[in-house]
From TrEMBL:
Entry-linked PROSITE patterns: QOR_ZETA_CRYSTAL
PANTHER family (alphabetical): QUINONE OXIDOREDUCTASE PIG3-RELATED, QUINONE OXIDOREDUCTASE-RELATED
UniProt keyword list: NADP, Oxidoreductase
Organism listed in the record: Actinoallomurus liliacearum
The protein's name: Quinone oxidoreductase
Every Enoyl reductase (ER) domain range: 10-316
InterPro entries: ADH-like_C, ADH-like_N, ER, GroES-like_sf, NAD(P)-bd_dom_sf, QOR-like, Quin_OxRdtase/zeta-crystal_CS
Length: 318
């Protein structure tokens, strides 16, 4: 098959289209012919060597498509099923392997490429709004990078739960997208904490996937006993934090959550995925695909994501 192979860590140019042997399913595994693969910041961190990843490797973890083979012991997934997973071993290829108990069925009302576009970020937005902090009607949440893949989904889910959203974005085009997704107020990053406090007196929750450049302002935007969900670091990692700052800020909570701990059981994975696909099928959740790239252009997709040029979700199409 054709796949992107990352031969070493480095810039986007280490992502090269290569002919490799078709993957075979081991016991308990399935092979999926991908309709599309999702591009995620995690793939960028792994390419850079910031997150551990041995090379050579096919990057990517997210995709959806039709099952073409199943390994020994697989009983509840069959050849021909349409499934999605955020735990593929190498999604940047025509075929990918996943453990059968880590794939989810894609219902008829959801196109496979849309399932690939929503799964990883959708599961993440789901746990952040339903579990890390359960958004209640009337809660105002601050959502950074509100026009990004995560930001658009977080915004819609907070609105579905009856909350209000203040979003931050860098451009007018991104502001429009955030407002179309339901954001009640949209700010630029400059002085956002003062603005949030003057408008609300402090919010109960901040969803921050930007990290280094927003962290201080995020803490300063919280009301006493508020929670900062620091779920990513698009601008770079946050330096070490003195816990005393949480005391001084008003007995604040700080968490650094990761998807794997919120889909630890099959029941939890299916609960979140069923909600997501149900909302898509009913039209309650829309997925904005901001860019579709041929597989060979994986490096360009990474470049665009890192340079803040993108909105919504980026897909690679084999
Ligand atoms: N913990 C988890 O379980 C989990 C799961 C999925 C994703 N994530 C994290 O969620 C974050 C967002 O991921 P995404 O794929 O949805 O990306 P994205 O939000 O579509 O793209 C990142 C956005 O961050 C903003 N940004 C601000 N400063 C930036 C900088 N210096 N460099 C790059 N971007 C900057 C940009 O929006 P503006 O131009 O509007 O500022 C940019 O478009 C990432 O940190 C990712 O690692 C975490």
């Amino acid at each position: 098959m054709r796949a992107i192979v990352m031969t070493e860590h480095g810039g986007p140019d280490v992502l090269r289209l290569t002919e490799v042997p078709d993957p075979q399913p081991g016991p308990g595994e399935v092979v999926i012919e991908l309709a599309a693969a999702g591009v995620n910041f995690k793939d960028v961190y792994e390419r850079q060597g910031v997150y551990p990843k041995e090379t050579p490797a096919v990057p990517g973890a997210e995709g959806a498509g039709r099952v073409t083979a199943v390994g020994d012991g697989v009983t509840d997934v069959r050849v021909g099923d349409v499934v999605a997973s955020a735990e593929l071993r190498g999604a940047y290829g025509e075929l990918a392997v996943a453990p059968a108990d880590r794939v989810v069925p894609v219902p008829d009302g959801v196109a496979p490429d849309l399932a690939a576009a929503v799964l990883l970020q959708g599961l993440t937005a789901h746990y952040l709004t339903h579990s890390t902090y359960e958004v209640k009607p009337g809660d105002t949440a601050l959502v950074h990078a509100a026009a990004g893949g995560m930001g658009l989904l977080l915004t819609q889910m907070i609105k579905l739960r009856g909350g209000r959203v203040i979003g931050t974005v860098s451009t007018d085009e991104k502001e429009k997208l955030a407002r179309d997704a339901g954001a009640d107020e949209v700010l630029r990053y400059d002085g956002f904490a003062e603005e949030v406090r003057s408008r609300t007196g402090g919010v109960p929750v901040v969803y921050d996937g930007v990290g280094k450049t927003t962290f201080d302002g995020s803490l300063a935007s919280l009301r006493p006993r508020g929670l900062l969900a620091l779920y990513g670091a698009a601008s770079g990692p946050v330096p070490p934090v003195d816990p005393q700052r949480l005391n001084a800020g008003g007995s604040l909570f700080l968490t650094r959550p990761t998807l794997v701990h919120y889909v630890a059981t099959r029941e939890e994975l299916l609960w979140r995925a069923d909600d997501l696909f149900g909302w898509i099928a009913s039209g309650e959740l829309s997925v904005h695909v901001g860019g579709r790239y041929p597989l060979a252009d994986a490096g360009r997709a990474h470049e665009d994501l890192e340079a803040r040029r993108t909105t919504g979700k980026l897909l690679l199409v084999p």
